[in-house]
Amino acid sequence: MRVAVIGYGAENTASTVFRYRACQKMWAEDGHLLDIYYIKKVTKDFWSRIKSYDAIINQKALLRPSFGRKLFAIGIPVFFDFDDALWTRPKKPYSWFTQLKVNGRIRYWFKHVDGIITANRVLADFANTFTDRVYVVPMALDLSIWKPVPKLPKKEIIIGWAGSPGNLWHLEKLQSVLEEVLTIYQQTRLAVFSGKKPDFTIPFDYYKYEPGKEAGFIQSLDIGLLPLEYEPYSMGKSPLKALQYLSCGVPVVGNIKGAASEFLTNKNSISVNSITEWKAALGRLIENQAEIDQLGNAGVEYIRKYHNLYDISKELQNIIGKKLSSV
């Protein structure tokens, strides 16, 4: 089976890296080919090469209908995969004109593809308003990389956050909470892993983003932060950083609503809804290493059972393989 993925972003776009690039070796071991084309780097020979595949996956690229018509004319199955609420965006809403264009492209792609793959139930419910050809395939991690490591006894507690510069605003809104926690609990440190420093006036350890360094950073944490807004875009996210925290035995404290609540429960995380609850939850864990360990261990087991890349890779193969066998 030969499958081509059309990635919506650049080569290091996280969702493409973790959704498909991480699967390539596993697919090859099963005798399948999984190639990735990045829409921002399409070469002149793209159209001649794309015809050689058995199926195509468009990964959340809301491309022009003219592109779609040319793609569908090839006559092979096309799937659409998305892991964000692509009908909206965080912070500032689309203008009415842009929203009209986005809605039109969603309708076009969802109507014409052979199947829609979503990362969670919230997104699947949205897709089901257009078609019943919807598959829920969770985001997953390579557990040979994303795993807990032994930690030596230490007096300090490290609270941390990892994410893209575009999401730093979520973390920055926690400054007053973190300032009070760091003041009360002198044994606590704050660590941030990102492509840009947060705009903080409080002390923190900054680790500049480097590909391949994420797991080591997450493994060093004791508590993982997941600040989110209660708005449509965040409600549709299956936060990859939360999966990474859990896989490494790091309990999550955060705003757990929408799709995040499908895998973050009171067995592996603490849900908060206010500044007071943020302070209480962080203080509770800082003072209780046993609870950190309990929540962390539960998170590791959950990821092994439901978000193991090996299993999810097989699931993607099966979805596409069944479609090809019916053609």
From TrEMBL:
Residues 233-311 form the Spore protein YkvP/CgeB glycosyl transferase-like domain. Pfam families: Glyco_trans_1_2 (PF13524). One of its GO terms (molecular function) is transferase activity. Keywords: Transferase. It comes from the Bacteria. This is Putative glycosyltransferase. It comes from Candidatus Jettenia caeni.
